[in-house]
Amino acid sequence: MTDAELRGFLMAGTRTGKFATTRPDGRPHVAPVWFVVDGDDLVFMTNSATVKGRSLRHDPRAALVVDLEAPPYAFVLVEGTVSISEDLDEMLDQSIAIARRYMGEENAQTYGRRNAVAGELLVRLRMDHVVAVDNMAGHD
After folding, report:
1. Could you tell me the pLDDT band of residue 140, with boundaries at 50, 70 and 90?
2. What class, spelled out in words, does domain 3-133 have in CATH?
């Protein structure tokens, strides 16, 4: 995929990302997340008390995969390190963008404001390594 195709694939519709972290005891953890692309980052939010939130404070390395679950099948795997922000102003803008994508324009402000509160974390996964495979089934 070209960079434009990669970004288009990641932002198509309401596909969720499957986000992987490593717990402090070494066990893997995978959870679905709503996300947006912001520059070279995949951005999502999580509560600081979640397994994701706690694990990322221990080890900022993570991976996220987004896939097309129907023919011709495709996926993008992103590996990188995260940065975490608790800045409510930055969080609000991104929370509204995420809500706009998954809940629609009519609900973006309501959901965005509900989620951009103390105790939440704004997580940015830097796209350090990307594997993108399109048309896995070989359809024309």
Report:
1. low
2. mainly beta
